Amino acid sequence: MVDSDFKEQKKNAVEILKAGGVVCFPTETAYGLAADATNAKAVRRIFEIKGRGKEKTFPLIAASQSMVEKYAILSPIIRRLVKKYWPGPLTVVAPIRRGVELARGTVRGRTIAIRVPNHPIARELSKRLGRPIVSTSANVSGEPVCYSIRAVKKQFVDQKFQPDFYLDVGRLPKRKPSTIVMEKNGEIVVLRQGEIKL
Fold first, then answer.
1. Are 34 and 134 in contact (CB under 8 A)?
2. Chain centre to alpha carbon of residue 139
3. What percentage of the chain reaches a pLDDT higher than 90?
4. Three-state secondary structure string covering the chain
5. Cβ pair 162, 49 in contact under 8 A
6. Are 58 and 32 in contact (CB under 8 A)?
7. Beta sheet of 23-26, edge-to-edge order
8. 153-189 pLDDT, tens per residue?
């Protein structure tokens, strides 16, 4: 792919996110679906595209730790952990800051699940949007995760709802999902053991 074409693709992806659209994009684990995490309508569309129950919540991606800390409160023990593993496939479940605007479907019991990924495109989308993005695997709920745009399109071909844009960087290497952790009584609790072994 010509460099200028890809720059144009990234620009289009950001414009679509700003307009409340849903973008299929690469992460360090698999292809994901992105939407502006502060836009309720956009987040609702991801539920529709995936065919996922509304009782579930989506994890978020942020461009940097400083962006994460605008939305979530990181305890000292979590800070030490993210210093070691961010950017990377480590998702932290942390209390949401008071007065922060995030869409329904991203917050569960006053907590959010968020990470700073080590895939540069994922970080760039969040940075250029200026806000965290929803990041959930680009697949129909219950179906396998996808490592190529072709696999994503194959799953969605007969679905009523589709992503608005596909940011294709070719086939991604097969990796485990992110490791998910939270702090409980001063201890790190591993909620899902993933790519990072804790």
1. yes
2. 13
3. 89
4. CCHHHHHHHHHHHHHHHHCCCCEEEECCCCEEEEEECCCHHHHHHHHHHHCCCCCCCCCEECCCHHHHHHHECCCHHHHHHHHHHCCCCEEEEEEECCCCCCCCCCCECCEEEEECCCCHHHHHHHHHHCCCEEEEECCCCCCCCCCCHHHHHHHHCCCCCCCCEECCCCCCCCCCCCEEEEEECCEEEEEECCCCCC
5. yes
6. no
7. 165-166, 23-26, 31-36, 133-137, 60-61, 111-115, 90-95, 179-184, 187-192
8. 999 998 899 999 999 999 999 999 999 999 999 999 9
**Residues in a beta bridge with 96:** 72
Domain 3-192 - what CATH class? alpha beta
- Put simply, whether the predicted model's pTM sits higher than 0.90 gets the answer yes
- CA-based Rg of the chain, rounded to a whole angstrom? 16
Which residue ranges make up each domain of the chain? 3-192
* Token digits of residue 175: 């990796």
* Distance between CA atoms of residues 187 and 192, nearest Å: 15
181/72 Cα distance (integer angstroms): 14
Q: pLDDT by residue (tens digit) across 103-142?
A: 999 999 999 999 999 999 999 999 999 999 999 999 999 9
Cβ atoms of 149 and 132 within 8 Å: the answer is: no
